[in-house]
Design a protein that fits this description.
Layout: H1 17-34, E1 37-38, E2 44-46, H2 47-53, H3 59-64, E3 67-69, E4 75-78, H4 83-92, E5 102-111, E6 123-132, H5 137-153, E7 159-165, H6 169-183, H7 192-200, H8 211-216, H9 229-245, E8 250-251, E9 263-271, E10 279-285, H10 289-292, E11 300-306, H11 307-316, E12 329-333, H12 336-351, E13 356-358, H13 365-375, E14 379-383, H14 385-390, E15 392-397, E16 403-407, H15 411-419
Parallel strand pairs: 1-5, 7-8, 12-13, 12-14
Antiparallel strand pairs: 2-4, 3-4, 5-6, 6-11, 7-9, 9-10, 10-11, 14-15, 15-16
Helix pairs in contact: 1-5, 5-9
Bound molecules: adenosine-5'-triphosphate and magnesium ion (MG).
């Protein structure tokens, strides 16, 4: 029986990996320009981290985690998102003692048990950034701008930036009472999860994807209209920051991020070119999270950006990727003696960083040339008995057909003529 990959996973094949490498390259450069350093945390963590750090009332914790007991009987969970592990590491490694803010990015696989569909996988990849230590909403503007700049610099069009404020524990407490009063007589019509959320985290009902819940919420009061002065000022300064940077945005009071410890800023970047799974980037401020995870009270903000969704947008908008790097040279050999010489030359050239290859399949000369063509090499050298005897080889430029002679024992000459 042929073994297949698990449902909801994908192979990134050698023929397409250049797309990923290109995007990762753009990400790394962008992060460096903006002053973010990379962090790499384990693929699995103690389950408790996500229960505390993502929140018991979220879809992730309630339905989507890959949780199992390891051989030592510990409850382990595959990383469903990037923020909680970074927070854990920030606390565990006392990074809060460094001068603040701490600016971190990651590129990581994530695991969620979801129903696979376009833009929704069980193993997917996220690029994310986090800033710890500053309350200033200009930081929120900077963070949002990193996400927008990445997408825009890749050539993506028709993006919508939607921003909102979900308040703080103080104003949300009052708002929750208003929202609960509004929902009191509609409770029976809500889904089972929202009925629970009504008691645990009513704001999250606004984020439910069930149609019947969405309908019930049409005239619900918004957090945005019920902010305290501190949260209101914070939101005004965020908008000012975005204006200074020159980013367009839509204020959308319906944006509620899925995590429990979000405070103040919540935002999404949406593309209408990838169907239902239109949110490519989601993030916000979580001033309560680090304390919740056992650290000193420290504000934070960040986002997660789905790389599979990003690739889908690029494909659907027909945006081309830079071409893959081609090998520079193929060395074809006729006969055993020439094959030894080709081997010697190949490794000498590779030591000088020439991207070269030779035949390992005992092909005929004709088949070697066909193969070289398929590799799309820029030049070919053919070595036979005569070339060895006369110490002269021909370097053929496959792009214009030009042929140049070089001395077989003069490696610098060969390099120059291959490099042209
Ligand atoms: P959604 O509402 O689409 O389920 P989410 O709110 O669960 O998204 P986040 O937890 O904020 O998403 O994750 C950030 C980003 O990661 C999303 O905007 C999306 O681009 C990507 N993402 C989330 N879940 C998946 C998945 N199962 N497969 C592929 N990408 C995903
Ligand atoms: Mg989700």
């Amino acid at each position: 029986m042929k073994i297949k990959r698990p449902k909801g996973t994908r192979d990134i094949l050698p023929s397409e990996v250049y797309k990923w490498q290109y995007i990762e390259d753009v990400i790394r450069k962008l992060c460096t320009i903006n002053g973010y350093k990379e962090i790499r945390t384990p693929v699995f963590e103690h389950t408790e981290l996500f229960e505390r750090g993502v929140g018991e009332t979220t879809d992730i914790v309630q339905k989507e985690m890959y949780t199992f007991f390891d051989k030592g009987g510990r409850s382990i969970t595959l990383k469903p998102e990037g923020t909680a592990p970074v927070v854990r590491s920030f606390i565990e490694n006392n990074i809060f003692n460094d001068p603040q803010p701490t600016k971190i990015y990651y590129i990581t696989p994530c695991y969620r048990y979801e129903r696979p569909q376009a833009g929704r996988l069980r193993e997917f990849h996220q690029f994310g950034i986090e800033v710890f230590g500053s309350k200033d909403s200009y930081v929120d503007a900077e963070v949002i701008n990193v996400g927008m700049t990445l997408l825009q610099s890749l050539g993506i069009k028709n993006l919508e930036l939607r921003i909102n404020s979900v308040g703080c524990p103080i104003c949300r407490k009052e708002y929750n009472l208003k929202l609960k009063a509004y929902l009191e007589h509609k409770l029976q019509g809500l889904c089972k999860f929202c009925q629970d959320r009504y008691n645990t985290n009513p704001l999250r009902i606004l984020d439910c994807k069930e149609e019947k819940c969405k309908r019930k919420l049409e005239d619900a009061p918004f957090m945005l209209d019920n902010l305290c002065d501190d949260c209101k000022n914070h939101f005004e300064r965020l908008k000012k920051g975005l204006d200074i940077i020159g980013l367009d945005y839509i204020v959308d009071p319906k944006i509620v991020r899925g995590l429990d410890y979000y405070t103040k800023t919540a935002f999404e970047i949406i593309s209408n070119d990838i169907g239902a799974q239109g949110t490519v980037c989601g993030g916000g401020r979580y001033d309560g999270l680090i304390e919740q995870c056992g650290g000193p009270s420290t504000p934070g903000i960040g986002f997660g950006l789905g790389l599979e969704r990003l690739l889908l947008i690029l494909e659907n908008q027909g945006i081309p990727f830079p071409e893959e790097e081609k090998p520079e040279l193929f060395i074809a050999a006729i006969g055993e003696k020439a094959d030894d010489k080709a081997m010697e030359l190949l490794f000498e050239l590779r030591r000088l960083s020439i991207k070269a290859d030779k035949d390992y399949m005992d092909r005929s000369l004709k088949a070697q040339m066909k193969y070289a063509d398929k590799l799309k090499v820029k030049s070919v050298i053919i070595i036979g008995d005569e070339e060895i005897e006369k110490n002269i080889i021909k370097i053929k430029n496959m792009e214009n057909g030009e042929v140049k002679d070089a001395l077989l024992n003069d490696i610098d000459d060969i390099v120059n003529k291959v490099r042209r």
